[in-house]
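Troubleshooting log. The previous run stalled partway through. Resubmitting the same two chains, unchanged.
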Amino acid sequence: MSSDLSSPYPSAYSSAGSPPAHAPLHLAVALDGAGWHPAAWREPAARPRELLTARYWQDVVTEAERGLLDFVTIEDSLGPQSSHPIEPDGRTDQVRGRLDAVLVAARVAPLTRHIGLVPTVVATHTEPFHVSKAIATLDYVSTGRAGLRVQVSARPNEAAHFGRRAIPPFGLGDLDTPAVRELVAGLFDEAADHVEVVRRLWDSWEDDAEIRDVATGRFIDRDKLHYIDFEGRYFSVKGPSITPRPPQGQPVVSALAHSGVPYRLVARAADVGYVTPHDGDQARAIVTGIRAAQEAAGRERETLHVFGDLVVLLDDDAGAARARLGRLDGLAGTPYTSDAKVFAGTPAGLADLLLEWRRAGLTGFRLRPAVIGHDLPAITRGLVPELQRRGAFREAYEARTLRGLLGLARPANRYTATSATATA
Amino acid sequence: MSKPRKQIHLAAHFPGVNNTTVWSDPRAGSHIEFGSFAHFARTAERAKFDFLFLAEGLRLREQGGRIHDLDVVGRPDTFTVLAALAAVTERIGLTGTINSTFNEPYEVARQFASLDHLSGGRSAWNVVTSWDAFTGENFRRGGFLPQEERYSRAREFLATAGGLFDSWHGDEILADRATGAFLRDARAGSFVHKGHHFDIHGQFNVPRGPQGRPVVFQAGDSEEGREFAAADADAIFSRHSTFEAGRAFYRDVKGRLSKYGRGQDELLILPAATFVLGDSDAEAAELAREVRRQQVSGATAIKHLEFVWNRDLSAYDPDGPLPDVDPDPGEHTVARGRAQVRMYRDPLATAREWRELAAANGWSIRDLVIETGNRQSFVGSPSTVAAGIDDFVQADAADGFILVPHVTPGGLDVFADTVVPLLQERGVFRADYEGTTLRDHLGLAHPDARTPAERAAS
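Second attempt completed without errors. Output:
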């Protein structure tokens, strides 16, 4: 099995140094509704009445796979979308309403063959036991292409949807107060524990636990199933999982990070971090910070990808892309702003930028199409061929699993390693 | 004039983690790989079954303090595998068992509404409850719920989720490019629920699915469970698969519907049923005996006896006589995470009865467990089985069956190939799907078809 899962690329993105110049670029696309621009749904290429249909998601992910992309992420939230970072915005002029991202990923999995599927999971209000088996099952139904993007929710209105904890209301002006900083730090600590439990549960079955030994009547070797006995500040979980270890062993864990607290979550728990530099120098500084945190977490020998996030508007003519952004902003009523840099230009111009930022230590990019119906095909049919011409992107899928595409080896089971040590 | 012949409803239960599943059969495939689920679902859809059914248990079962290793162990996440099955099927309903104790209404309602969209209106929810601290050890809150509150939580959970499903009406999304109005009303999805178990408010974020609400199943058999079903469920997954018990259960539960203002055909009674087919009745009977022996190995027989004895019986020979020691009448401690232990309410009397049976028949422990265990519901040639199922339904002992084959994933194939055509010939089972949603298959009205007064009352 290992030969099927291995990647021809060396796993080179440890904190020990920058990726070698020949390292392949990794490309992902972030999917959200009709696209990331609030007026995306009004574009001729958008399909705003189909956003809740299986056909829409199947078409979009199939297009991403046509472009040989490493994976797609799928946005989600436990409340209505909002242009306001803390509260509902009461708007009716933007896309509102969405489907559960894990189920969207599962729905398209049997209809795709190579592309990784990385739904968003909110750690704050969910059970790590349920999340672990859901992503393990996504890995089974996709035969080894599952991941997750972990997210926290500090929104008081989302807490009220669960009624299990109160998050006191706060405003944008309070973000630097001790109370809000403590709240956010606690949510990220809880998310790190959540990921730890999810990962332990994936390992709670050894790969060869199912024996079907007719002579003794035993279906499993129960010595190869393990209680995880996690006890943390936020929850305790016994285990083992009800779902056997998934095909990849450990599906890919990713997180978006904008500052020190989430950088530590990425450094401690993730295989891929998404960051939002606005120029090459910022990219270099962020990568340095994450690599230091990676080392502090004792993971300097492990592969940790750092992907730059960019919102993209692509046209054959840079002026046309900028004009399109202007038109979208006009429809929205305000200029679009984002945590990530907004790039409006040509595929060749974007390729220049990506290769420049790669020299700052980024190992890949997660592109957020401003209008999925327009900018996703521009990525797969414009940007990708451009990168291929420059020898910077794959010509064909080279591995069967998402870990394989990302140059991540199939990991040993932590519990197998423990028992091997014990008997040594 | 005789009444018209009832149409039979059929469903397929993916074989699970009970000893009824014969994993030792050479034809037995994976219980976890998607290919097995896809095969099973496609067979059921080829046979025009109403729906596929998945069970769930949230902690691996233990006996004597160790994980039970004699039966199939391990299963996928219910929602995730059902969403994937929606991609490889077109019409068949997708029923998932989801626990109301270790989940929250907002999340479960999102998942069912999403599954309903992604399957084009084929989702169904078998609501189950648990209370035990044993299962709770896998979850944030642990074993927080007293046993007597589990149905009150389940009912409130279902009502709360119903409020979330109904918080969108289906006409909110305008997506009008010209005016720039995506939503008709910024308050779409607003809800408030204040109750004993849940105190939540806000906005639900999944617009209304094709079925409005998923079809709701109830599986418990207690007085409270029956009342819950009569009030709130669309179908019952019952255990009463013998003719007389089935008729009594059917009369009882359907008799409770009128006080909730519901008609006789608004709640379907669908018992679990097993089958063994042969070319002749005699061959099938012989096969059925073999299957029962495969289902109860010597080791399994000892474990089963421990449910009653509540002691470690591993020193006993399954081919020897029953233990002379009496059951431990204290709190049951041997087996955890399984329902069977509750079937034996008077272990001393059960042990006495079993000893007498074994002595009278010369049975060993294994013989006893095999002989007192459940027989397959339908055994015979295809025509015998088709007639048996039809008689059962026409006599109001059931509205149809949820069939559990004993081999994964191909155990349904022979039923699809031989019995279904005979039921179709009898005119009691559809030759093709007439509608697209599970509600269509089951003859259940869309929730929006009810009058506003009816909706307000429910």
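Takeaways: Chain B has a mean pLDDT of 93. The two ends of chain B are 36 Å apart (CA to CA).
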